[in-house]
Every structure is written in structure tokens, then in C-alpha cells.
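Question (not urgent): is this output format expected?
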Amino acid sequence: MQSYTIGQAARLLGVSPDTARRWADGGRVATHRDDAGHRLIDGRDLAAFSVELAQNGTAGAEDEPPHTSVRNAFPGIVTAVKLGDVAAQVEIQAGPHRLVSLVTREAVEELGLEVGDQATARVKSTNVHIDRA
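Got this back:
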């Protein structure tokens, strides 16, 4: 399972590292330490927390304005992967934005996408493409 530093988590959540650090210090998101003593957040925990923030309307409110161009990339965290026999649905929380992409099951397996993974949704018109980070 992928883990994220406080800085990486902040970027994915669309907030400052200080805000992410305060949330971790306050127990809003669980952290653990690696062998070097750096604080890390488990990808599944970060995915769940990003969904909670988005539902409460607090994600990304302080840093950058949301991306508005249809040709933008939305770096975020995979919050759900639903596999069918042929198709799959992948949900990504990118700051305050929840993006859903319908792709082939083969594409999800090829990318190795799992909840908690960092990914970028690329939006062009009505299509959402996913790049594994």
C-alpha cells in the first residue's frame, strides 16, 4: 500500500502543508513514522479523509482556485475502484473535485490502480483519462 508524506497529502488535498500537519496533529487523519522518522499517511486513510473533506466542503478551499479548463489535469487520490467483467469505474478525489472515469477492466489492472493510489485524471471534453503517478 502506498503511503504519503504530509507534503504530498497536502498537495493531493489542495491545502497547505501546515494545514495537513495540523489535521494530522489533531488526529483528523492517522499517521505513522517510517524508519527515518518521517510522518506518513496510509493511502487508504488519505483516500477516506479526502472524501470526508469533499463532503464537508473544506477540501482545497485555502490554496489554489479549482481548475476550470476542460484540458486540465487533476492530480488526486483514488477513492474507489469498481470492477465489472469488462468495464471498471474509477473515482478520484482531487482537492474539492470528485472525478469518475469509466474505463476497461484491463486498463485498471494494467495500471494496478487501487484505493489510496495517487493518480491524475485528465479531462478533455466529456472524457476522463487516468495516469498512474
